[in-house]
Each structure stands twice: as structure tokens, then as C-alpha cells.
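Researcher: Quick test of sequence recovery. C-alpha cells follow.
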């Protein structure tokens, strides 16, 4: 996953970072659930516009289910 969630002990908040872009902070949240919600939303948004991810998704759909490794 491109986005990661970490707990900042100094602030007591959850931080969402883009690990593929120099650990850029994408959001800061008070709850873990909100941070993960944003991380998953960012991941899905990124996958929609990434040509490599689109290609991999097409390949997964073409392959028989027995050969797909998640």
C-alpha cells in the first residue's frame, strides 16, 4: 500500500503519509479509524489514475481465480 498510518506520540494523533512521495503528510486525525479511512480512500484514488495499477487490475481479472495471488 502506498499510504501508511502512524501514531504520533508527541501529538497523540494519527498521521497518514504518502510513502512513495518522501513521506509527505496527507492528513492528521484524532482517531485511528478516520486515519485508515483516509489512507484507503487515497489508495483507491491513486489506483484509478495509475496506469500500472490499471494494467495489473486488468491482468487479475483475466487470470483464472486459482492463479491470482492476493
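Model:
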Amino acid at each position: 500500500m502506498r499510504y501508511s498510518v502512524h501514531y504520533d506520540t508527541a501529538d497523540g494523533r494519527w498521521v497518514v503519509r504518502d510513502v512513495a512521495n518522501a513521506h509527505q503528510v496527507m492528513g492528521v486525525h484524532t482517531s485511528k479509524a478516520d486515519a485508515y479511512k483516509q489512507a484507503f480512500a487515497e489508495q483507491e484514488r491513486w489506483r484509478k489514475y495509475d496506469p500500472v495499477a490499471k494494467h495489473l487490475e486488468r491482468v487479475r481479472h483475466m487470470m483464472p481465480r486459482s492463479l491470482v495471488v492476493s
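Residues 32-49 form the longest helix (18 residues).
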